[in-house]
Amino acid sequence: MKLYIKPGACSMASHIILAEIGGEYAVEIVDTANGETAGGANYREINPKGKVPALEVGGEVLTEGPAILQFLGDSADNTDLAPTGGTMARARVNEMLNFTGTELHIAFGPLFNPGSTDAQKEAARQAVAGRLDWLEGRLSDGRAHLTGAAFTIADAYAFVVTNWANFTGIALSRWPHLSAFMARVGERPAVRRVLKAEGLAA
Ligand SMILES: N[C@@H](CCC(=O)N[C@@H](CS)C(=O)NCC(=O)O)C(=O)O
Questions:
Q1: Average pLDDT, consecutive stretches of 10 residues, N- to C-terminus, the chain (202 residues)
Q2: Which residue of 38, 50, 161, 200 pairs with 195 in a disulfide if CB–CB is 3.0 to 4.6 A?
């Protein structure tokens, strides 16, 4: 099983879940700008969409972060990572994966686009803040993670995307419950290993 990543990108969520599960896996960095993997392969022949993550598994290539996260979570012995399909617990995880992908992840887009004007970046910061307000509300009942007590695949994705605030001029201290969540997830041994492996922590 091999995961294609870009350090610090949304692919880090799948990397975290691989590390949480343990076992054997490989990770290869992709230069998405020139479309080449670290090993010199043409990445578009692996994933024609040219984006990370992509997971090579069993002779197939699976793309789209939330699909990869669910595939990995469903394969794990630890059923907390992805609760059984058809339950409300799983529906809540899917709800949070979708929110992170279609609301939060997308809202950061202009902040990483070198062509964005300052006004576009400020509007994007406000849009991100609105989504972070919602995460703060979700955590304000004292739950440890976004869907309850257990750490799930949805927490990994929300952690990685929320962490982009630290690189885009958004102070997370404004959201105390979310800041505590980020610290809690960031302390997980698997998360620490991945942050180090991707060059985001010493
Ligand atoms: N819908 C895709 C989006 C993936 C995506 O946006 N990947 C970004 C990194 S977070 C990427 O590869 N960007 C490189 C590029 O656009 O050249 C998913 O959820 O997996």
A1: 98 98 97 98 98 98 98 95 97 98 98 98 98 98 98 98 97 98 98 98 94
A2: 200
